[in-house]
Structure formats: C-alpha cells, structure tokens
C-alpha cells in the first residue's frame, strides 16, 4: 500500500506533501479515479458484450424499477437486500422527458441509470472522509480540548509527521489523509463501487457509526447501528464491542457514576449486583434502546410494506441457503459435499452413521461468533476500538460459511485506522509478506476456480479445497497479528 | 376403437391402385419409400380402469415422446419437438395439481418418470383467452420405452398368442414419435405413433372390433392450393368393408410446414460450468417470400442446465451471439440451486434467432449461453449429462384472416405453438447432427470427486481448529498481559516504538 509515510525519501516526501498536505488533492484524485472508472464502465458496457457492470447492479436497478411501478422489490429474483436500497436507487429508473432530442434523452437516461454507481462511489468518498476525521480525532481519550490543541500544534509543527507513532491519540491531518488514501485511492474499492456493488454504503454506515461512538454521539450511534444491521446483518457484531468500550470512565458520565460509587461504600450489596448496576449506564441503555428500536421499526415497516418476501429474502434466506457454489470459505467443499448427501439418508441404516459423520459445518457459527462477538471485543475493545472492530470483521469474514471478494471490503474500511500502529507497517518485511500471502492465497484459489469454471476441470479436490484452506490460514495468521497489535 | 394407418410418400411418388391387395381384413402392397403413422382412437370406457381413473382427473393430457434418433419428417407429419418425453397437462380440478396420482400412474405405465406432483415437478404454461395451452408442462430427457411396450402389450393385445399384435406393439421401439392425447371433450384417447421416412412394405391388418382405415398417400399440389395449405392425394381403404381402394385428393390448412433445410447443434469447447450451445443453420433464407418470417429455437432443458433470462436481455450481448431475444422462458428458474435440490423438471425457452442478411443463401451460427447446476459429487470427478437438440423453425405470419381449423394430421399443444399468435405457421428445420448420431450433446460436468473426499471433513475441521486456536492463543496473550481494560501504560509502549523508528 503506497501510502506508508515511514519511508520518506526526498521525492516521496514531496509527493506526499503535494497529495496529503491539503485535503483537495487527495479527494480530487479519489473523485477522479471513480469518475474515470465510471465513464470507462459506460464505454465498456455500450461497446462490449462483456460487461463491466456487476450483475448485482442489474438486480438492484430491476428491483428499483419494480418499486417505481408500485410493486415489491422482491419481485426481482435474487434481490436479497433491504427495500431501502431499491428506494435509494429509484433515480436509476427515471427517464428523460419528451422535450429532449433522442441523443440528449439517451445521455440523460444513461446518467440516471448510473446514478446508483454515483451514490456508491460518493459513499466511498464520505467513508474516506470519515476515516480521516476518526484518525484526526484520535481513538483514545484525553479531554476533547487538550486533544484539539495537540492536533493544531502538530499541524503547525510541520508536515512530516513520519516518525510520530500514533497510539490512539490524535493524528496530524496530513498523516491521517495519507492513511485514508489506503481506502480512498484503493483501486479495488473504487472498482467495486463503480461496478455497482453496494458495499460502499456499508462502509460509510460503519465508519459513521464508529465516528459517532468516538465523538460520544450515542443516540446517533444507536440509529446507525440499527440501520446498518437492518441493511446487512453482520454489523451486529459491533454492538458488544461498542457497549463494552463505553464504560462510565470513558463517557465521564457523573450522574451515573457518583450514586453507584457512593452506594458501594455505604451498603453491603453483593458485588455482582453492583457490577451489573455499574455496567448498566445510561449511555449503554440509550445505545441498546435506540439501535434496537431503529432495527425493529425498520423491519416492522418493511414487513408491513412487503410482507413475507421481505423476511424470506433479506433474513431467512441466510438460514436456508446451502452455499454449495465454490467461494473462498474454508467450509465450502464440506458444504457442497454434505448438501448433496443429506437427501439420501433413507438408504443407509442408522448404524452406519457414526460420530465421524458429525457435521462440522453445523458448528461453523461457533468459532465465528465466539471470536467476532465475544472474545475479540472482550480483549480489545477497551484498548483500541477501531482495531477491535477490524479484528471482529476480519474474523467474521474469515470464518464465514460463504466468502466472496466483496466481503473483503467490510474489513478493508478499518485498515487505515489500524495500520498506523500495526506490526505490518513497523516491519516492512512482515507487511509485505502479509500482503503477498493474502494476494497469493487468493491468486491460487482464483486459478483453481478458473480451471473449474471455464475449463471444466474437476478441481474441487484437492485444488480448490486446499487453496481455500491455505487462504483461510493466511487470514488467521494476519488476524492473530492484528489481535496482538490491538492488545499493545 | 378406431384405427387409422397411413403411409406417406413424397410428392410425385404414387402407387397404382392395382398393386394393393385386400383380402379378409389384410392389406398388402409393394415396398415403397414412405413414413408410416398409426393412430388408435380408444374411448375412455374401453381403457384399463387405472387409466380411466387417471383421465378422470384430467381436463387434457398430452404425452409426446420424441426419439433422439434423427429422422426425416415429411409433409404433413411435420410438427417437431426436442427429443425426449414431453407431457402437457390440465387438471380437471386445481386440487389435482398437488396430488401424486398422475406421477404414480406415469411411473407405472412408463417406468422411470421422475416426477412427484404437478405443483412440485411441473412448470406452468402461460394461458390467456387466445391460446389453448395446457396448464402444466413436464419434460424428461430419457425414458426407457420397454416398460410402456410391455404395458401396452398386456392391455392392447387380446391374448399372449396374438403374435401380430405383439409384433406391432414391439415396433413402437423404432417409432420416431409417439403421442398419447386425451381431452375431456372428445372423451377419447388418441394413440399416434410415427415411423421415419424409409423403405417399408405396405402392410396393414385390421383389429377385431375396430374400424381400420388405411391410406397410402403422398403430398401433392392441386391447382387451387392456397399458400397456407398443403395438398394430399392417394388411396384410402377401410379394411373389412372396401374391396378395393378409392382414390382421394384433398387440401387443408397446416400450421406445420417443411423449411427444406437443416441444422445441427454442438457445444463450444471448453464447456466449463457455462457451456455455449452453437446452432448451425444450413440457410439464412426464410422458407417463403410471401410472409414475414423469423427463425426460432425452442428448448426443453433438463434441470442440470439452464439459461439466465437476465443475461439474455442485453441487446449488444444478444447481437454478438446472433440472437434477437428471449421470447419465453418458463418461470421460475432458480439461478442458484444445485441440481440435487431442484424439484422442477427444468425449463422451456423460446429464443428468436437473428439470421445474417446476405444475397445468397449460406450457413450461419447462433450461440446460446447456458449455465450448469452443481451436480451431486461422484466417483472420478465428473458426470455426463445430455443436452437435447432444440426444435428449430421459422415462424411466419400467415395472411390476415387465415383460419387454421384442425386437420387430420395436426398436433396442437407442443409447448411453443401456444406462444405464438393463431395465424403463425411453423416451417420446421430438420435436425441433422454433424457429430454423433443422436439429437443430443454430451457435457462432462466437473463435480466433487468422492474418491478424494475422505479427508475433507477432518481436514476442514483441523484447519478451522488450528486457525481458531492461534487467534485464541493471541487473545489469551493479550488478556493475560494486560487484561481487558484500556492500557494506562500505553504512553510508555508508544515511546518505545517511537525510539525504534
């Protein structure tokens, strides 16, 4: 990742200054990157039978078209998202009025149709800006005023910022922008959103959630948490980390703290009860209630509007899906194998189904949820909330029963917050080997996948299986390092 | 019970009436080049009781079996379908759709018909007031016919000793098509078998208690023939009644015509999981200049393979494949499910092809992009599946006001006819494989190799456990070193790292 400020030769440092010392160059280049990709997508889609635009974008826009006709977005098969997404994309269904000539009308229609990609790309930029805000704000807490002074001081005190290690306190804006560039100028991120994938929306929601939490806007955080879980389920893993993080000391909430401390001195209440009472702070209750209320009311609303198909497609589908098609998940081969063998139990007597037949895939949620909702938040959230969220997301994606490259964006958005303090930046060799192994792991898998998908070779075993396990172990190693870093 | 036996020759090949010898219910004639069609019409109360019970639940039922052996069809026996076992069904009451009675009886009569109930296994056909399609469609690629032949021998032949009857029923194995049609209005079952155009002896015997009519016909072109009509002439005899054949000539409107060209279908290599079926048509010229015509291909794809209607909606993509558009696809087609959980038989689709325009007639190709479902794991890592040829025809619009009343050789309810307007004429292109001798193509589908699957469960579990343990170990390190609280010592840690850098 090009933005490491540590290795600053003269040339690099001047480039660094040019790009990051002011906000405009970075955001302009991030904008231009997406604008060029978007225009290119229009050209390729219009001129080649092989499309740049992702099939998902056609699913979203088809669903939006159903909505524009007053029908349910779930009338479009494989639409498995919240109706909000289809509503947001309603402009993609708009067309030019009759007053326009045929050429102008075509341009206008194309522009409207692409408006969803513009939205996703804009979400990328906002997420990047929020990353900068969070880095500048600092993730740990001296009092707000002090921090402000510190940042200002840094800003005045020169742009190098290179040698300064960030330990949770504020970061110079130029340096923060350099790290935000990992997201903003990342070709993978820009490509995914200009192809029309909605992951950028999740990026902005999740980053806004973190920003709201760190700046003590608890009600806003609750709203964002409820909304993002409604959008894509997985952000529920952030709830325990945030709740754990927002202890009374951190939130400096005197009204709650003083009565509890006084009671401890005067009475003989059991310590467990006292602990529980201490744990149930007003902000925690506020977060729990606002997020739950947001999540539930959105679901009630959608259920009232679209009924059972909403529940089936957005939520229940994830329970019943088989995930037999090849993907990065370590469980994939096992899932394919067992999904095909379950309908035939009648032929074999019960005696031939020993303990060895215990289905590991039915226990897959255990390591995944243990790590991402309990163990990682418990160990890391109070020390370094962004790194905890990164590690939780990384664990969730790595141990998931289905995993495609779009899921990588879920954790990538947190990388700029973690990397400044990471072993991967401190040791160049370690950083490069992690990146190299991560890319190589995917490369090997993709090569096997290509042979299967396009050449028709049966590479399920051992090729794809071994490649997915290899990639899984690489990810586990990286996650272990992240956990270690987060605990320092 | 009535029986009609027809020998059909091509135009210009007729036989002299004197060459036919009729004697005590048996007709004998010379060896001629002809197709043969036998039609047996049986009233419902003459049927075995189990079939009677079954038909009682049906408003209409059409079973059409088409051989996967290529055959030459001649006027007027032209209607074509993809090879395989087709079924079109309208239940008498909607409740029948959830009953397994039909599928059980089909299994009894035909052997291995793999359906459960119409609702689960069949697809529904579009119906409006203009079309007369049946409600449900079912298709299966390969059906072994020996169980049906055994069943028919038992039920149709009066005794085991009736050798000639047994021989006739046995000959169904060589038929190119077999149709069993019932509708509640006529209250009769028509069993129609046709044998390909080849050298055969004119020979027919009457059945006891059945009126048997024999025709030795050829297509003809009488002077007053309209463009949408076909003409027939030849000799008709009612066995046991006529002593010599009577000459006949008649013309009728026909929706099925011969385009007098051929096509073949083959898969482009490598097939992968997204095979492309390439149709190669001999001619890009429409069969008639009098009407607007456009080439179409009608597919019945077993559930192992399917087309994605969303992929087939982009004009640029379609044009690059010489396709005009997807005109119909049975709904729903699950785009994700593996073959082994899919209960529906598969999908039917109608594609309009786009013939390149050239002055002189030349051959051309169209590519049909398809997708394979995941199949069950198997030994060796691959499983062969068969993809049937489509029915390819030019659909031409007959003149305004043209009527197509039923003709004696007409077939309706073919799956695609209901998708067109009532004035459409189908000019059939003959399937003639360039490779192999069957109207199917074989795809080797990669599947998980069960020979190597022994270690999957254990290996996956071990890897997950290893990864999990490593992370838990790191988490344990963090917790044991500094607990779960935020670190006040962070500042010193940070200064250490500062020094390092």
Automatic annotation (TrEMBL), chain A:
Gene Ontology cellular component terms for the protein in this record: endoplasmic reticulum membrane; glycosylphosphatidylinositol-mannosyltransferase I complex
Stretches for region Disordered: 145-170
One example of a Gene Ontology biological process annotation: GPI anchor biosynthetic process
Major enzyme class: transferase
Biased segments, Basic and acidic residues type: 145-158
TM ranges: 24-43, 200-216, 223-246, 285-306, 363-381, 393-419, 431-450, 462-483
S-adenosyl-L-methionine found in the keyword field: no
Protein location: Endoplasmic reticulum membrane
Key words, A-Z: Endoplasmic reticulum, Glycosyltransferase, GPI-anchor biosynthesis, Membrane, Transferase, Transmembrane, Transmembrane helix
Keyword Transmembrane: yes
Pathway: Glycolipid biosynthesis; glycosylphosphatidylinositol-anchor biosynthesis
Topology within the bilayer: Multi-pass membrane protein
Function: Mannosyltransferase involved in glycosylphosphatidylinositol-anchor biosynthesis. Transfers the first alpha-1,4-mannose to GlcN-acyl-PI during GPI precursor assembly. Required for cell wall integrity.
Family: Belongs to the PIGM family.
Protein name: GPI mannosyltransferase 1
Automatic annotation (TrEMBL), chain B:
Keyword Membrane among record annotations: yes
UniProt-recorded name of the protein: Protein PBN1
Pfam family membership, one: PIG-X
Subcellular location: Endoplasmic reticulum membrane
Family: Belongs to the PIGX family.
Source organism of this protein record: Sordaria macrospora (strain ATCC MYA-333 / DSM 997 / K(L3346) / K-hell)
CC terms in the record's Gene Ontology section: endoplasmic reticulum membrane; glycosylphosphatidylinositol-mannosyltransferase I complex
Record keywords: Endoplasmic reticulum, Glycoprotein, GPI-anchor biosynthesis, Membrane, Transmembrane, Transmembrane helix
Residues spanning the membrane: none
Membrane topology according to the record: Single-pass membrane protein; Single-pass type III membrane protein
Tree of life domain: Eukaryota
